[in-house]
User: Which sequence fits this backbone?
């Protein structure tokens, strides 16, 4: 029979004692009505002790321990102080926590339906039953703890940055379409005034910049030839543009029309510049989130795979056969419906390896590449370290397989390549950890428990060194008269060190 009930709140731990034992009639309507009525419920359960949390940090720590089924030291001390040692049966809502309390304190615990009903009734009457709390304290504590607990659960994780990659690659594809459409509009618009420029300048970005530079073709003079040559990058092409402007068959243009064309060309150029910055951002993000996949197949194709799968975690769970045809679902289902040949590749078609392979080997290299992409995505998702060693090794394997298909060169064994990559990855990770403190300025921050355990032996030495330095600084400040002597001694020591 349950004699006591542990109730965890956002403000602290509460221990209730059962006064009456209605365990036999717990399913009757009278018992349920008694739980709903505060006056009757007060005769069944009474508050024995309440231990409030010291701070919001303490509340968050205890909430995390309760959710993980761990007995916090404060909870252990609270139960040891208030719970009778003999014939006590503690009712706990969380089954994992009940098992941990039983293992830690040796107290019999229960999580039956009766305990759940009592816990529900306590939660219903908590504002009035928990007398140490004032009105509104419990709601404010619940709000604050809810925010901090959710923030701790949803803390930054590198694997969640794949959402930024999905948005970036989507924006990049949209920009490519828009820039192409707008560049064609600039060409068509300005061609009414200078139609010969389209055949001379083929690049869209260069065409927009030249349009902005020339403006009215009638005003283009020989003095502008050096600046035009710097813009185009070719003096002969600049001279060709100048000659074409003098003999152009285009119509004249008004100032207002020219102003609109120039404004639109400015927008196109700004979009192109933003596209370059976005590509650089995507590249850096892929090197952080999926370094091995980027090294293997490239940043853009890797980002498209992650975007199509929905996340890096989803991509890592896909088998190699699914990765191979990812992006060709319509062709796959059409082939299955018509009982035709299934597609050999989907998004992997944009990889440089598929383009290098001969027509008869495209399917084989696609299957091999999908296998390596699946391994690389799993390493990026679940391994720690953030190095691209495995991606570089697998890229070399794909190139060796291409050479094997074309020339017959026997590639290295996979076990040898992976063992060498594992050793190299360990060295790279160690080098990155060693270089990290020197690169970053030391900032005062709370260390983890593991770091504190490791550095315990080093702390006394550091403290002694700091105390010695402090004493030296104090003595230097006090003994002003002895400074010349110290300077002489230091100069002698420096001379001795130079001789050595």
Assistant:
């Amino acid at each position: 029979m349950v004699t006591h009930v542990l109730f965890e709140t956002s403000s602290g731990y509460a221990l209730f004692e059962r006064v009456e034992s209605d365990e036999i009639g717990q399913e009757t309507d009278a018992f349920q009505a008694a739980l709903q009525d505060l006056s009757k419920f007060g005769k069944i359960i009474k508050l024995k002790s309440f231990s409030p949390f010291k701070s919001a940090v303490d509340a968050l720590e205890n909430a995390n321990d309760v959710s993980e089924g761990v007995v916090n030291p404060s909870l252990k001390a609270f139960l040891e102080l208030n719970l009778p040692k003999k014939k006590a049966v503690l009712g706990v809502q969380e089954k994992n926590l009940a098992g941990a309390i039983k293992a830690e304190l040796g107290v019999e615990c229960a999580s039956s339906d009766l305990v759940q009903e009592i816990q529900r009734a306590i939660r219903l009457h908590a504002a009035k039953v928990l007398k140490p709390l004032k009105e509104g304290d419990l709601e404010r504590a619940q709000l604050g703890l809810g925010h901090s607990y959710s923030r701790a659960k949803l803390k930054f994780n590198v694997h969640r940055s794949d959402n930024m990659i999905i948005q970036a690659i989507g924006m990049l594809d949209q920009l490519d379409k828009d820039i192409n459409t707008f560049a064609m509009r600039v060409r068509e618009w300005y061609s009414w005034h200078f139609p010969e420029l389209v055949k001379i300048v083929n690049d869209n970005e260069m065409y927009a910049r030249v349009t902005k530079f020339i403006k009215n073709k009638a005003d283009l003079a020989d003095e502008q030839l050096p600046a035009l040559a710097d813009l185009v990058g070719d003096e002969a092409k600049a001279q060709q543009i100048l000659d074409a402007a003098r003999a152009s068959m285009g119509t004249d243009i008004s100032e207002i029309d020219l102003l609109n064309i120039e404004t639109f060309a400015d927008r196109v150029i700004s979009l192109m510049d933003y596209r370059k910055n976005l590509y650089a951002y995507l590249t850096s993000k892929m090197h952080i989130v999926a370094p091995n996949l980027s090294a293997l197949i490239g940043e853009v194709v890797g980002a498209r795979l992650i975007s199509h799968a929905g996340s890096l975690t989803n991509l890592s769970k896909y088998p190699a056969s699914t990765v191979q045809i990812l992006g060709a679902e319509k062709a796959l289902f059409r082939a299955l419906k018509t009982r035709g040949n299934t597609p050999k590749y989907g998004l992997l078609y944009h990889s440089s390896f598929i383009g290098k392979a001969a027509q008869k080997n495209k399917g084989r290299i696609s299957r091999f590449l999908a296998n390596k992409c699946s391994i690389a995505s799993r390493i990026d998702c679940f391994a720690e370290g953030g190095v691209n060693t495995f991606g570089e090794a697998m890229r070399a394997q794909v190139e060796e397989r291409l050479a094997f298909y074309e020339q017959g060169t026997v590639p290295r064994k996979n076990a040898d390549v992976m063992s060498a990559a594992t050793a190299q990855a360990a060295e790279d990770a160690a080098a990155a950890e060693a270089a990290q403190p020197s690169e970053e300025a030391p900032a005062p921050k709370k260390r983890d428990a593991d770091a504190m355990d490791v550095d315990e032996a080093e702390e006394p030495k550091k403290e002694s060194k700091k105390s010695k330095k402090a004493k030296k600084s104090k003595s230097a400040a006090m003994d002003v008269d002895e400074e010349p002597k110290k300077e002489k001694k230091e100069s002698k020591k420096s001379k001795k060190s130079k001789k050595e």
